[in-house]
Design a protein that fits this description.
633 residues, alpha+beta, 20 helices, 10% strand
């Protein structure tokens, strides 16, 4: 029988066993293909050149992340398949086949699995392209035309990327088999990830893991300016290493300690599963660490999606506080501007606020700006009364200031200064708020609120500009009012007057909608990956449990008791990864909150609960499969 025929026969006979692997690989193709469809689709062109460029940049970044994920996931999947098949195909040695022939058979079988996954992934991806875009547009709240066909370029890119990655690991597996001995093949299933460890080594790894993880958590929350990206990268590396050592040291040591406590061990069914958990934890700790890191990525991506959605909505409200704004050196423009606007539409509310602009040479603060703006507390209090906005602070003392800033989407400057020197005098910053007192103008002009007396002392040093702000009722008259105000601005241009008009139909920041949509899909990718890896590992472990379960049944252990012990064992595997992820997410999402200048604790809690619900489904599926493969039903 030829190698090709034998490999095809093995593939057909074992197709059910390979199905979970094929579906997992096909899922990566589906996601990658649909993101490539976005890149080559013309549906987003109606959003404008700027939004299109931002969306393309986001998709390229996402494609890179997905490409890295495909490398890891295909490596892990083919490695699991190789370990599982090694023992079986090692038997062919006794039939007179050489390692090269066995390697060829493995390579053909691996390629058949890869091509099956690619074919299913492409068909499913093309069939779901319209649904993918529909979900994406619904989540993004973008009203665009849905394209139900895939661009040939997206298909070719997906095929090329997948095949290059997959064939590399297929050839790697072939080389592994060629270099393996008969004994290594026969004992491959038992070797797996198991590493013999003594108690002191576990303690050492536990201490080192806690220290490294703590350093990673500290870097994640450390404030900085130019070193924020370096801190973030360092935190990712340290947390990953720390989680690896935690599952390789601390967690096995804790279970080993519990098993040594007779009061704990002899309660319920613990004698049936606790030692098996210790064995599995030491055997599979690398897998559990990878699953935990992927779960952490998933909850961080989901939290970022929720946070971006909330921030986008707030930014829209922020920018649309006023419909029209004028900024001028003249203090008498309110009446002519008001007359022009009220001639077309009633004014919902309006305000006037003088702003003192000082040259950067007079000011020393955390930033390095050419201009700094200051506002008198009394003027701001009057604006709050006119517009119905909340004034969140009392009048600053003579040595105090309060910063009013704009909403940050993301900022790489997380270190805030609490002091500012103005004209040689030191002022203490008592707080910061992002209330849209100046609406759109505030996006590019943060300002410090000062004591009235201190403000008057600084007026001779700078230029006092007047902001006139109006919110109209009839938005259908927007264009006419804008044109009328442009005439007013032209007539006063020698006095440095400028006009801002916020078009209610503007889509200038619609690219942010795509950002939080992509975050949601990245969450789905990572949570599916973590669940798939855990499922595949437990799926394989179940076959090893058959003999143990048969022995326990012969000893008189009831079927129900066995099922309860298996449920506890699997719950421990999922639970430990979830607990470590939940704790770590406090710091990863906390770091994200610092960059967004907001508290994301509630977003973090919701994201963790969503992950918990999805893991519960994976747990139920794993338990059902484990009982079937382990013949416990």
């Amino acid at each position: 029988m030829g190698m090709m025929r034998l490999a095809v026969l093995n593939f057909k006979n074992s197709f059910k066993n390979y199905l979970s692997l094929i579906i997992s690989l096909a899922f990566t193709c589906v996601v990658f293909l649909n993101f490539q469809n976005i890149l080559y689709s013309s549906a987003f062109d109606v959003l404008g050149t700027r939004n299109r460029e931002y969306i393309n940049m986001l998709v390229w970044m996402t494609s890179f992340v997905l490409g890295c994920f495909m490398v890891f996931f295909i490596w892990y999947s083919t490695n699991v398949f190789l370990v599982r098949r090694k023992r079986e195909i090692g038997i062919y040695i006794f039939m007179g086949l050489s390692n090269q022939k066995i390697g060829q058979m493995y390579w053909i079988e691996t390629v058949l699995i890869g091509l099956s996954a690619l074919g299913i992934g492409l068909v499913a991806g093309m069939a779901a392209s319209g649904l993918f875009q529909m979900i994406l547009f619904v989540v993004s709240d973008l009203k665009l035309e849905i394209r139900f066909c895939s661009d040939i370029r997206s298909i070719l890119v997906t095929v090329a990327v997948y095949l290059v990655i997959y064939m590399i690991f297929a050839w790697k597996g072939y080389g592994n088999i060629v270099r393996s001995s008969v004994l290594e093949m026969i004992l491959a299933a038992k070797q797996n990830e198991y590493v013999r460890q003594n108690r002191f080594l576990l303690i050492g790894k536990a201490i080192l893991g806690v220290v490294i993880l703590g350093c990673g958590y500290g870097l994640a929350l450390k404030e900085g300016r130019t070193n924020v990206m370096g801190n973030a990268f360092g935190a990712v590396v340290l947390v990953t290493v720390g989680v690896y050592l935690l599952f390789g040291g601390l967690i096995p040591f804790l279970f080993w300690t519990l098993a040594s406590n007779k009061l704990f061990l002899y309660r319920g069914t613990r004698t049936l599963w606790i030692n098996n958990v210790i064995f599995r934890m030491k055997k599979n700790y690398r897998t559990y660490a990878v699953v935990c890191v992927l779960m952490l990525c998933s909850v961080t991506a989901l939290a970022m999606g929720f946070a971006m959605k909330e921030r986008y909505d707030n930014m829209i409200r922020f920018e649309n506080t006023y419909t029209f704004q004028l900024i001028s050196s003249r203090s008498d423009l309110d009446k002519p501007a008001r007359d022009l606007i009220e001639g077309e539409s009633p004014i919902v509310f309006s305000s006037t606020l003088p702003v003192l602009s000082l040259d950067g040479s007079f000011v020393k603060a955390g930033g390095n700006y050419s201009k700094y703006e200051f506002v008198s507390y009394s003027y701001l209090r009057q604006l709050a009364r006119d517009t119905g906005m909340e004034l969140l602070f009392e009048e600053p003392k003579e040595d105090e200031v309060f910063l009013v800033s704009h909403l940050h989407l993301l900022s790489l400057i997380t270190q805030q200064t609490n002091e500012i020197i103005v004209n040689g005098k030191l002022y203490r910053q008592t707080g910061e708020a992002s209330v849209p007192y100046l609406g759109y103008l505030q996006e590019s002009m943060n300002f410090y609120v000062m004591n009235d007396h201190e403000y008057e002392k600084l007026v001779p040093l700078g230029e006092e500009l007047y902001t006139y702000n109006y919110r109209i009722q009839d938005l259908e008259r927007f264009a006419r009012i804008r044109d009328n105000l442009d005439v007013l601005v032209e007539e006063t241009k020698e006095n440095h007057t400028g006009r801002v008009a916020i078009d209610p139909q503007s889509n200038e920041i619609d690219w942010i909608k795509m950002l939080y949509s992509i975050c949601i899909f990245m969450f789905l990718v990572f949570i599916f990956a973590s669940g798939s890896i855990m499922f595949m590992k437990l799926y394989n472990d179940a076959f090893e449990e058959r003999e143990r379960c048969k022995v326990l049944r012969k000893m008189g252990i009831p079927q129900e008791l066995l099922r309860r012990s298996v449920a506890a064992e699997l719950l421990t595997a999922y639970g430990t990864a979830f607990v470590v992820m939940a704790v770590s997410s406090l710091f990863s999402v906390g770091a994200l909150g610092k960059m967004m200048y907001t508290n994301l604790l509630s977003v973090n809690v919701v994201s963790v609960l969503v992950v918990l619900g999805i893991l519960a489904v994976w747990y139920g599926l794993s338990l059902w499969t484990y009982e079937r493969n382990g013949e416990i039903e």
